[in-house]
Design brief:
CATH class of the largest domain: Alpha Beta
Low-confidence stretches: none
Shape: globular
Order of helices and strands: EEHEEHEHEHHEEHHEHEEHE
Structural class: alpha+beta
Helix content: 25-40%
CATH superfamily of the largest domain: Gcn5-related N-acetyltransferase (GNAT)
Distance between the termini: 36 Å
CATH architecture of the largest domain: 3-Layer(aba) Sandwich
Mean pLDDT: 90
Radius of gyration: 21 Å
CATH topology of the largest domain: Aminopeptidase
Number of strands: 12
Length: 322
């Protein structure tokens, strides 16, 4: 059994509307025994209370919400890269202790070889008439430039929402350089208006399709093996990491424009036959509408971020809608 509690004393973990400081529990691993789970949760609660926290969220991690976040409750197929995976009985352990659903995290899949729906096609055609808009995929030779553009869009579209913090240009460049060895340029998309970045559609190959050959190891030998596997084993699956549009261009059809422009290029590759979006919080109905409007999308899995309020007399409040 194990679990790690941590606090938000570094000010990085914040959700808009929180009425008190909130800590986290992560790395949860327990046998199917409620008493054992209660012991772990009680220990975390006591430690977090001493640190001045008023609630604990879990299972979460120290970083951003795109990695190891939430408890899988539906769709127990092999997880995407950096997605949490747990045993089905964990849900009961959380619920029986008194955790409540802070927000649901839903994932959608689709067949990228098929046509998107007519509504998106019509909206794309309309925006295509405006020469001020253009959509391009990233290139590794201009990676730093695209990284800076990513930071601009991300900070306008996402920073400050749902506990997310701003990304500096330097951090974005470091992230893109780190991603470069596994990046497929043709599935990383940007949209510009008058040469200003206004939207991002960031995807990567499903790395777990290669990592599964490494048996959980990544020493020098396995790094070399990874390169060999990546070169010799076709990977027909890719996954959506982030999709965002700056506020002033939302509701204008930019989503349809960028998705359809990307579709032309991706389908011409004849490389991918399965696409899955990383989770979308149910506090973001706009993005859920985008996902469901792509065409024949279907729910692939659901995770939950749980919250346990220490003062049980207070009314419980779910994550605010963005």
């Amino acid at each position: 059994m194990r679990q790690g509690p941590f606090t938000d004393v570094n000010k990085k973990y914040r959700t808009k509307g929180d009425r008190f400081p909130v800590g986290g529990v992560g790395f949860f691993d327990c046998i199917n025994d409620q008493q054992a789970a209660n012991l772990l949760f009680d220990t975390a609660k006591e430690w977090l209370s001493q640190k001045g926290m008023g609630a604990m969220d879990g299972p979460i991690n120290f970083g951003e919400r795109d990695r190891w976040w939430g408890l899988i409750v539906e769709g127990f197929q092999p997880p995407l890269y950096c997605m949490s995976y747990s045993k089905p009985y964990y849900r009961t352990l959380f619920e029986q202790y008194g955790f409540e659903v802070f927000f649901n995290q839903v994932c959608y899949g689709l067949d990228p070889t098929r046509e998107i729906n007519k509504k998106l096609l019509d909206r794309h055609a309309e925006l295509k008439k405006d020469p001020h808009y253009k959509a391009v995929h990233a290139t590794k030779k201009d990676l730093d430039k695209f990284a800076v553009d990513f930071s601009i869009v991300y900070n306008k579209a996402w920073a400050g929402h749902g506990g997310l913090k701003e990304i500096s240009k330097e951090l974005a460049i470091a992230m893109f350089r780190k991603m470069k060895p596994v990046m497929d340029e043709k599935i990383v998309w940007f949209t510009y208006y008058n040469e200003e970045p206004i939207a991002i559609f960031l995807n990567i190959p499903d790395l777990n399709q290669w990592f599964k050959y490494l048996n959980g190891k990544f020493d020098l030998y396995h790094k070399l093996k990874f390169l060999w596997v990546k070169w010799t084993k076709p990977n027909p699956r890719f996954t959506g990491i982030i999709f965002g549009i700056v506020p002033e261009h939302q509701g204008k059809g930019v989503d349809a424009f960028m998705i359809n422009e990307a579709k032309f290029v991706v389908q011409a590759l004849h490389k991918y036959n399965y696409y899955e979006l990383q989770w979308i919080g149910d506090f973001n109905p706009k993005m859920i509408n985008v996902a469901e409007g792509l065409g024949d999308t279907y729910l692939t899995r659901r995770l939950i971020t749980w919250r346990y309020q220490f003062d049980r007399s207070l009314p419980f409040e779910r994550h605010p809608i963005l």
